[in-house]
Write a structure and sequence with these properties.
Leucine-rich Repeat Variant; 17 helices
């Protein structure tokens, strides 16, 4: 399971995130979340006009106001697994496509790609990531002292790194240090670091602290907490998703949509995607389109085709991109 996490996140966390590459933007968000990189650096400057920020200052991407702007598809010579109808649908824009049909009708293809806690009785085991080499020589007691240090509400990177380290090592007192970092008086970036530390730590005792962050004043902390809780599998994910979908901030909603990849019941999964893929907000429908693009099932393609056929302009380009991704899946 933890090996699966590494494969999934390394695949998502390729370097070179740019706004012309939605997979790389999502990669930046998830990579930063597991690495403990704070999100707070670049709130939107006005409606629809995001502030510039480096990709590493994420979780960034569709759901935090920095939306992907479609560009022409890169050169890709692989044949699409497209029906004749899909070949005709896309040929006008992209030239002829090799027509072959998919018959799979299940979300199992998606579930196999994402590592969750269901196979471990609903418990996320943690990452087992080692400390960076420069930190490995720091004794546990000293690292815990750094993690517990009162930073007076300021963001102190040394404390942030110490939180991650004591969580990875599961030093006695690590969860107390994380709980202190979650206090409302702490800098939002440190509170995000607390979520990253909880993901590193894992195990059943980290889950209540993750739930504490779902009520945080920062949408980035709330959204990251939803993702972290979903690592514990279907039951916890479903509760967190229900909270996320009612949140007023699109970042949180987007993380809730991404967390649907933890669901095991198609009766729960499909209504959420059907509801969110029609959203007028790009930050929301783009996350839904991404999740659908990962599901090798006719129902997913039906939703993507429908929205592609209905859409115009930028929205049409986005759905076209994700429909193509879905049709490629069996060759990847």
């Amino acid at each position: 399971m933890r090996t699966g996490l590494g494969v999934a996140l390394l695949a998502l966390a390729a370097c070179g995130c740019t706004r012309s590459d939605p997979e790389a933007e999502r990669a930046g968000r998830l990579k930063a979340l597991l690495a403990g990189t704070p999100t707070q650096a670049a709130p939107p400057t006005s409606a629809g006009t995001p502030a510039a920020s480096p990709p590493s200052a994420a979780p960034s991407g569709a759901s935090d106001g920095r939306v992907w702007r479609a560009t022409p598809d890169p050169d890709d010579s692989r044949p699409l697994r497209a029906s004749p109808e899909d070949a005709a649908r896309l040929a006008a824009d992209d030239g002829p496509i090799n027509p072959t049909a998919n018959q799979d009708d299940s979300i199992r293809s998606l579930l196999e790609d994402f590592p969750w806690g269901d196979d471990l009785e609903g418990v996320w085991p943690g990452t087992d990531n080692p400390d960076p080499v420069p930190l490995q020589s720091v004794p546990d007691a000293e690292m815990l002292t750094r993690a517990l240090a009162d930073s007076g509400g300021r963001y102190v990177p040394d404390r942030h790194h110490a939180l991650i380290s004591v969580a990875r090592r599961r030093v006695p007192g690590a969860l107390e240090a994380i709980a202190r970092a979650q206090q409302p008086s702490e800098d939002p970036r440190l509170r995000e670091g607390a979520i990253a530390a909880l993901i590193e730590h894992g195990r059943r005792e980290a889950l209540p602290l993750m739930w504490n962050s779902v009520a945080d004043s920062s949408p980035f902390v709330r959204g990251n907490a939803v993702w972290a809780i979903a690592l514990y599998g279907h039951e916890e994910a479903l509760k967190a998703i229900q909270v996320a979908l009612s949140d007023p901030h699109p970042y949180v909603v987007g993380m809730g949509i991404l967390a649907t990849t933890a669901l095991r019941d198609e009766a729960e999964f499909w209504p959420i995607l059907e509801r969110t893929v029609v959203s007028p907000k790009q930050q929301i429908y783009q996350e839904a389109a991404y999740v659908l693009s990962q599901v090798d099932a006719p129902r997913a393609r039906t939703l993507l085709r429908r929205e592609y056929d209905r859409a115009k302009g930028e929205r049409r380009a986005i759905f076209r991109w994700y429909l193509r991704q879905n049709l490629h899946r069996r060759l990847d």
